[in-house]
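Lab meeting, item 3. Inverse folding demo.
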């Protein structure tokens, strides 16, 4: 994590690094350590400042530890110090109040300037940049500004003063340094006990600060812990998520603004019971995926699976749509079972930017997908609903196993030894849906927005529009889809979790679309057939599952027979394509046509090669050559002039 606008002096940086001043100074001079110059009134006229982010990780950790201690101490003392009036403060503190009031007023005026920025964050960054340039010895950060403004609005002018210099010594029986060490060790997500931390603090004092011995009692430290604000304890000992879920304000949703079928949500929940698979006999905890209407909190559909997977999500979604119509929007978390390429899209999980999966199920249905913020359980209504399911359903089974080992009944292992006592998956599936539909959906609720109605009653009351489609349309729109693939000689395939390919064949598709790109859409409950679509998502036709061979001679013979049958049909299809063309005309020899065309060209396209000037060869015998050599010029023809005139005549004619 980077810290913005934290500039340290060389002495401060050297202390964090555990080095000497001159060592860091030489590194700066030799450009081994980055630093900026700050103008001062000192002899040299400037001082070096080092950004905390340019120091080592060890130095950063030390800085964080000190920062954390300072913040904790400040929060612990806040209520008490802000009870003072301005009159009780020193003159220096009152001047500081005036100083900060002016900065806050200037800041608020700057960010509220019309037309400057729509987002105040950018305006704030620009204000800080200008201020720090004008005041290099008193730089500020966005965090400091917002903290000062918050405290000013909450506690008034007194909050703008620095109260550290006004602290009275002897007010606490615990030394500041000892308390700082204690807090750094106790405020940790490993959550060490007070007794253990106190023991180690005593050891620390004995080895490093024996002048402070004896330390106050453990009870004194416990009382001091009680004064630390609860949000501080939750943040540092339980973590950021616990702090956000338990201490930060959350959005109160108004259910009156939406209707039934406007927004659906879904989630997986592991039932706290053990079941037995009807076919294999395998014993496991089933995972239930449930689709719920947010307006009414009505359970719309449910599927039980051995593990959380996208097939369960899509099959349950299809059940809900076929019974209750098409919703406008779905609100889901960021689980892999929801962010699959053919349902709602991969979103941030998309690994291959060039992968082409075609339109998703939600896109074909015209449904918008919204994803909850990561690790934001408060935003998902359905997660809170599952707590009720555990109490009212799961605990009724003898194979109830609890949500963790500590909650597991003592008889659990003994029960599992008797297979006959373990309910079948089909039985639990039927009974779970009976509970959801006949109990949960029909029971009056005090939940917000239901006004005492049951989920069924609320759903019916606020169902304004029911968007439907035909069975054929739904089958097409709700089909799962593969990524774009080329038609192979075995036609098309689907690849499942273990990487295994299942092939689907059609002679017609192979003959017409061989090596062309297609999509494969399928129903995960019926893999006997798939539908193939071209690149523009136009239906090509069905392809049927191919036989699989192995190393068993009897089964291989049957598979080979069926494969040979498909091969014969493919050959026949190819031959029929050619024969259908031959039947139209008996084509002559291609060589015959080529020669006939050449002869025709010779006859019809004969070209004249007449020149404008004909130049005869001036051939002379021996006696003529002799007379020419003695100066007979009467026989010389002016050929150059004739060629020049011929060119002029040609240009004139053109």
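The presenter then showed the designed sequence:
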């Amino acid at each position: 994590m980077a810290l913005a606008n934290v500039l340290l002096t060389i002495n401060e940086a050297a202390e964090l690094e555990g080095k000497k001043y001159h060592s860091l100074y030489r590194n700066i001079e030799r450009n081994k350590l980055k630093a900026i110059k700050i103008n001062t009134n000192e002899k040299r006229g400037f001082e070096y400042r080092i950004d905390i982010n340019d120091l080592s990780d060890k130095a950063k950790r030390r800085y964080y530890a000190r920062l954390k201690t300072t913040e904790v101490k400040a929060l612990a003392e806040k209520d008490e110090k802000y009870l003072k009036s301005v009159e009780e403060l020193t003159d220096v503190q009152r001047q500081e109040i005036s100083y900060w009031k002016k900065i806050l007023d200037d800041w608020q005026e700057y960010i509220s300037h019309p037309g400057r920025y729509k987002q105040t964050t950018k305006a704030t960054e620009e204000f800080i940049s200008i201020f720090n340039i004008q005041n290099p010895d008193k730089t500020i950060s966005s965090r400091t500004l917002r903290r000062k403004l918050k405290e000013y609005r909450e506690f008034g002018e007194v909050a703008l003063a620095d109260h550290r210099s006004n602290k009275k010594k002897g007010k606490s029986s615990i030394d500041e340094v000892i308390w700082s060490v204690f807090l750094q060790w106790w405020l940790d997500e490993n959550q060490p006990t007070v007794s253990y931390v106190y023991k180690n603090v005593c050891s620390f004092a004995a080895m490093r600060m024996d002048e402070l011995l004896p330390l106050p009692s453990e009870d004194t430290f416990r009382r001091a812990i009680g004064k630390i604000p609860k949000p501080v304890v939750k943040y540092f000992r339980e973590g950021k998520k616990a702090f956000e879920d338990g201490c930060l304000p959350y959005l109160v949703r108004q259910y009156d603004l939406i209707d039934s079928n406007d927004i659906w949500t879904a989630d997986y929940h592991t039932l706290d019971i053990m079941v037995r698979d009807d076919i294999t006999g395998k014993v496991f905890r089933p995972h239930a995926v449930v689709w719920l209407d947010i307006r009414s909190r009505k359970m719309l559909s449910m599927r039980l699976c051995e593990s959380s997977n996208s097939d369960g999500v899509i099959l349950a979604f299809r059940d809900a749509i076929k019974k209750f119509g098409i919703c406008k929007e779905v609100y889901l978390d960021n689980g892999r079972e929801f962010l699959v390429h053919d349902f709602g899209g991969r979103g941030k999980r998309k690994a291959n930017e060039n992968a082409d999966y075609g339109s998703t199920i939600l896109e074909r249905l015209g449904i918008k997908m919204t994803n909850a913020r990561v690790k934001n359980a408060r935003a998902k209504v359905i997660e809170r609903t599952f707590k009720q399911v555990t109490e009212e359903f799961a605990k009724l089974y003898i194979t109830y196993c609890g949500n963790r080992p500590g909650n597991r009944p003592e008889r659990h292992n003994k029960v599992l030894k008797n297979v006959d006592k373990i309910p079948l998956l089909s039985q639990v599936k039927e009974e779970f849906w009976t509970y959801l539909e006949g109990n949960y959906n029909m029971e009056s609720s005090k939940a917000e927005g239901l006004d005492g109605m049951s989920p069924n009653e609320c759903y019916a009351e606020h169902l304004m529009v029911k968007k439907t489609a035909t069975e054929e349309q739904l089958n097409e729109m709700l089909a799962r889809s593969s990524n774009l693939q080329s038609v192979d000689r075995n036609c098309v395939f689907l690849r499942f979790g273990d990487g295994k390919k299942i092939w689907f064949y059609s002679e017609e598709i192979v003959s017409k679309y061989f090596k062309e790109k297609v999509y494969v859409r399928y129903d995960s409950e019926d893999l006997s057939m798939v539908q193939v679509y071209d690149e523009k998502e136009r239906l090509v036709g069905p392809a049927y599952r191919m036989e699989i061979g192995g190393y068993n001679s009897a089964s291989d013979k049957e598979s080979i027979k069926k494969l040979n049958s498909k091969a014969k049909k493919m050959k026949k299809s190819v031959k029929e394509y050619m024969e259908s063309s031959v039947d139209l005309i008996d084509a002559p020899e291609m060589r015959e046509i080529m020669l006939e065309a050449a002869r025709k060209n010779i006859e019809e396209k004969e070209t004249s090669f007449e020149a404008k000037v004909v130049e005869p060869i001036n051939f002379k015998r021996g006696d003529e050559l002799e007379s020419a050599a003695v100066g007979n010029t009467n026989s010389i023809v002016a050929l150059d002039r004739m060629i020049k005139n011929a060119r002029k005549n040609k240009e004139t004619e053109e």
